[in-house]
Amino acid sequence: MSRSPTDGVEPPVATQLADRIGSLRADHLPAPVRETCEQLLIDVIGLCIAARRTDYVAAALAAWPDAGPATAIAHARPLGAAGAAFVNGTAAHGEDFDDTFEGGPVHAGAVIVPAVLAAAEQESLGGAAVLLGMAVGAETICRLSLVVPKAVHKAGFHPTAVFGALGAAAGVGAALGLDRARLTHALGLAGSMAGGIIEYLADGSWTKRMYPGWAAQSGLRAALLARAGFKGPATVLEGTHGLFQAFAHSRDGNYAALTGDFGARWVIETLAFKPYPCGTMMQPYVDCARRLTSRGLAPGDIAEIICEVAEGTVHRLWEPLAAKQAPPNGYAAKFATPYGIAAALLHGNLGFDAFTDAAVADPAVRALAAKIRYEIDPANPYPNAYTGHVRVRRTDGGLLEERQNHLRGGAQAPLARLELEEKFANNACHGGWSDRQTAAVLALTHALWTQPRVDLRPLRG
Fold this sequence. Notes:
By secondary structure, the chain is mostly helical. It has two domains: 13-270, 2-methylcitrate dehydratase PrpD, CATH 1.10.4100; 280-404, CATH 3.30.1330.120. Helix content is 48%, strand content 6%. It has 21 helices and four strands. The chain has helices at 13-22, 31-50, 55-62, 81-93, 109-123, 127-144, 151-154, 159-176, 180-191, 207-227, 243-248, 256-259, 283-294, 314-317, 321-325, 330-333, 337-347, 357-360, 363-369, 417-430, 435-447; strands spanning 302-309, 372-376, 388-394, 399-404. The chain has a four-stranded mixed β-sheet, with helices on one face. Helix 8 (159-176) packs parallel to helix 10 (207-227). The termini are far apart.
């Protein structure tokens, strides 16, 4: 059901959402939801460890000098809750290797896990409260992205940054047990803390890396402010000057996608966990390129590559084409599909080492990427599904083609629990952690929901 402003008959959308959240209990969550929350926990912790020695995490730590009871994962110095939420959110998303909700797209884990863990340490919460908070927060950020699909990106904003603040407020609010009125206020406050332009695409600068961290600490602060009695607008979502008008340029959306069956059906069960550390929509193209390599295609055989793509992905992953064929640095390369295809064809895989400044300057990769262009497929199902297509015109005149109709790691081809734990172990190894430390973290994640008071000290470096 689509509706624009509240008509005075139904409660405001934020209040409806608060009602749904207030009816949920941790011990009534379905088993697949609990499993998804545990997968998010494992993935986020591993990503924080992998990024622990990066320059952007060092800068994030230095910018939050305040001490407190919370854990910056893989770092010895404890921080205040807001600082820990910011640092962990930034680290978890920094390599663009975190989960994705395909319908949005948004990244749930890098926002919600740091926000709820920081609240748990500050407020001495137990594992059941953390589980409920993670489930509610992740569900909220994902469902918010379904109200006006694609519009936030089209308007020039990052959906995770915009919706993440409200998702974190909902998750922390649920973990704290806020009542309907205070949870509504928390959502109203978080709407004024949302933001995040996508101008990082111009030069590969770092702002996108911090968006989940900023959203995490914003949602945490909004929930704590609301608990203390600070008030926010109940019409934060659908109002004349509300979130969707500001960031999607429209009040007319499918608000039932947010509130209609919240808690009865869980969209987070379809969350995708990435196999490669780069932009989500690029990943099926990398899979196609790797399959072509396995079929014997050599770089010297390639005259031209044409990829069919969704129109909605072009401005982020394909244009300006020359910059996507020769990105200015390793971070920009994570959002450059021609580069990713070329690197996969040359090296057979795509790992952390493909996204260094030195790697993207490789003349062989740049020469191959210069042969890659795109055509828009008007029938592409994005954002409901992420597809891949690589068609190669060989130097001998022959054609080779690969297609993929889904995102590997997503609902159609999910990573098995063993694969996710292997990804975690590889990320921990990349961050310099020992096998003993890695095993201790996995044991913690398995037992966290039953802890009477969450203890995250084993996650400190």
